[in-house]
Amino acid sequence: MGSPHVSPARSTPARSYAAVDLGASSGRVMVGRVGPDTLSLSEAHRFRNRPVRVPEGLRWDILGLYAGVLDGLRAAGPVDSVGIDSWAVDYGLLDADGALLGNPVHYRDARTEGVAEKVWATVPAAELYAATGLQYAPFNTLYQLAAARSSGQLDAARHLLLVPDLLAYWLTGELGTELTNASTTQLIDPRTRDWSHGLAERLGIDLGLFPPLRRPGDPAGTLLPHVLDETGTTGPVPVTTVGSHDTASAVAAVPATGERFAYICTGTWSLAGLELEAPVLTEASRAANFTNELGLDGTVRYLRNIMGLWLLQECVREWGDPDLGELLAAAGEMAPLRSVVDAGDAAFLAPGRMPSRIADACRATGQPVPVSRAEITRCILDSLALAHRRAIEQAQSLAGHPVDVVHIVGGGTRNELLCRLTADACGLPVVAGPAEAAALGNVLVQARAGGLVGDRAGMRELVARTQPLRRYEPRGGTAAWRAAEARLGTP
User: Fold this and answer.
1) Residue 247: which pLDDT band, with cuts at 50, 70 and 90?
2) 261-266 and 405-410 as β-strands: parallel, antiparallel, unpaired?
């Protein structure tokens, strides 16, 4: 797992780093303090990420997000570096003068409906997977670009910047494309870790729109003078390339002590899988809808996207934001595995009417229909644990990579019921924490670029030593979970 562990000198003083961490529903700027025996995070500023529906579709309020970043850097105070991570696949287009051509399209926008089939008419799905290793998702950047073909914005564009790269450009004036996020576009060859030029040419996609690739740890410029003025910061302040896909940053902060581990990055999505040295590009892997995204130090994040806590978030929103602790306590008292749904089903992708859609899915599979809020919540959490089980079992089989422990990181670590159910479903111990894995991974890559921490193993050892973790042992056998899988018709 990388090179032998290297530790920095114990006399090295701690330094401060700003981690800009943007999620699908909120953004925040965190300040990390890192030293040989120190790793701490504090929240400088949190702001909403509220997409806006306009006549042409669903858009990100990218200027509002950038304003939140500036406010956060102002609140952060003096830092040694800044790093940016966010969700994947979405992008902004710049014209020849470097001006943004409209707000970035949201990945939940309807413009990619039916586009994949048109792409597959040119490059069949199996061939596409063999070339890129990326799972099918209707919102992959490749399909977004196919949907935007011949649009006025794309015709006028001279540069395409993924969301973290766009924010870095506004902060520094320098263009680049970070590799871990680029690997989610379905235009990167995970074996060469470079663009798949032949594929792009066949599909009429101009890779010249993408600035040169950067890797985690590479310099990304320094804050521009007007940014220093806006944030009240004294320069120079470097911006460091991190794993700008938030999952890449989160996996970098998994507190694993060896190679035989699986991870689940939980939040709006659940990303469940393994860290590998090489991609798995078999037809069986494609049929199981596993993805090969790039991680730190040339690793591969072999994982499956599961709908995640989005299901519960949408229900809670429709219910008028009841107390979540009370809701989870009530769900814990409900009968286990009474009804389950396929948490990876694209039918749950769009917002709206989530309780009714879950009820419809249970009815369609001949299961009892959950009615109360507690019943629906228990159905969601049982279903997520079941999806975690399926993903981790299949990943081990497809990659030939057995595991002894499951690490859950991200916001879902605060959901004790979900962690306990996942341990039961997988039949493996679950180690939950850290909750702020993406921000910690962001900070640690910056600190490593500054020589303050060692290799990937050293980063993880520091996380394990300094962050609160909780272990859940599996209870009972997994026969009931296998029976629940059978109800859904899944292998």
Assistant:
1) very high
2) parallel
Long-range contact list for 364-371, CB < 8 A, 24+ apart?
Answer: 365/341, 365/487, 365/488, 365/489, 366/487, 367/338, 367/339, 367/340, 367/487, 368/338, 368/339, 369/339, 370/338, 370/339
First-to-last alpha carbon distance for the chain, in angstroms, is 31
CA angle 143, 144, 150 (to 5 degrees): 105
Catalytic residues: 246
CA–CA distance, 107 with 191 (Å, rounded to integer): 26
> Is the preceding omega at residue 355 within 30 degrees of 0, hence cis?
no
Tell me which residue of 313, 310, 306, 312 sits closest to 291, measured CA to CA: 306
In one-letter notation, the amino acid at residue 215 is: R
pLDDT at 6 over 50: no
What is the C-alpha to C-alpha distance for residues 387 and 374, in angstroms, rounded to an integer?
A: 20
60-83 tens-digit pLDDT: 999 999 999 999 999 999 999 999
On whether the CB atoms of residues 193 and 142 are closer than 8 A, the answer is no
Compute φ and ψ for 29, nearest 5 degrees.
-115, 120
Determine the average pLDDT of the residues in 185-208. Answer: 97
Spatial distance between the Cα atoms of 384 and 396, rounded to a whole number of angstroms: 18
